Amino acid sequence: MAQAKIHAKMNEGACGKFSRTLSMADRSGRLLESLDQLEMRVEALREAAAAMEQERESILEMIQSVQNSQEMRNICQGEREELTLTSNRLMGRTLSVEISIGTIRNPQQEEALQKATSIIDEIVKKLLSDMEGGRQQLLALHAACVTEAPPVPIDQKFQAIVISCALEDQKKIKRRLETLVRNTENAEKNIKIMDHQKLEDTKTNGGH
To answer: Where is the BAG domain (predicted)?
Structure first.
């Protein structure tokens, strides 16, 4: 009789323990599900912030394009001053929007990013003295950042450095190079237009 009671008590304890284990598993599952949903929201937040960051860069580039455009030079001084004030106001308002997306890097990725940034900075410094040579170097760096076969030579050394960077940094490096290449191309076009106008003015004055 006593032995039967002991067995019954053990079974009751076992059942109780088993129930608690299931309850803990359920709670753990719900918490894990919540964290999974939060992770998706965090990624969506970072993607939205990255999109805003790109939009900010795009707006700044477009404002600069308007400021340096041939159309801006061809209007009268009064209108040009008014449009310059407006564009400067828009530039200031855009710059007041600050977006910061932190990137977690290991020491190797940090070092790679510093190297890549330094290489680009050095080329940018040389653009004023050698626009075409600098543009060709930028194209070679950009070719190292794309997956499709580019029509220009690839800077293999730079490619190895970029591959060692964090994925988010790789995207930013590529985007920076694309912007720089566009800016150099626009600068070259503006120089050619201005030089052509100078030649035309010389011809006109010579004709008189």
So the answer is: 112-192
* Cα–Cα distance measured from residue 205 to residue 119, given in angstroms and rounded to the nearest whole number: 46
Start-to-end CA distance of the chain, whole Å, equals: 131
CB 175 within 8 A of CB 122: no
Other beta carbons within 10 angstroms of residue 137's beta carbon come to 20
Alpha-helix residue ranges (DSSP H) falling in the chain: 2-67, 70-73, 77-95, 107-126, 131-143, 156-163, 167-207
Give tens-digit pLDDT for 18-27: 445 567 888 8
Contacts 24+ apart (CB under 8 A), 76-79: none
Q: In Å, how far are 5, 10, 19, 21 from 14, measured between CA atoms?
A: 14, 6, 9, 11
Under DSSP, the state recorded for 179 is H
Are 152 and 99 in contact, with CB atoms under 8 Å apart?
Answer: no
Q: How far is CA 169 from each of CA 50, 103, 132, 162, rounded to the nearest angstrom? A: 12, 8, 27, 8
Would you mind telling me the total number of residues written for the chain in this entry?
208
Whether the predicted model's global pTM rises above the 0.85 cut: no
Q: Which two tokens stand for residue 58?
A: 């795009």
Question: Which amino acid would we find at residue 132?
Answer: E
Q: Is 32 left (phi over 0), alpha (psi -120 to 50) or beta?
A: alpha
Question: Which whole number is the average pLDDT over 140-160?
Answer: 87
Distance, in Å, from the CA atom of 86 to the CA atom of 97, rounded to the nearest integer, reads 17
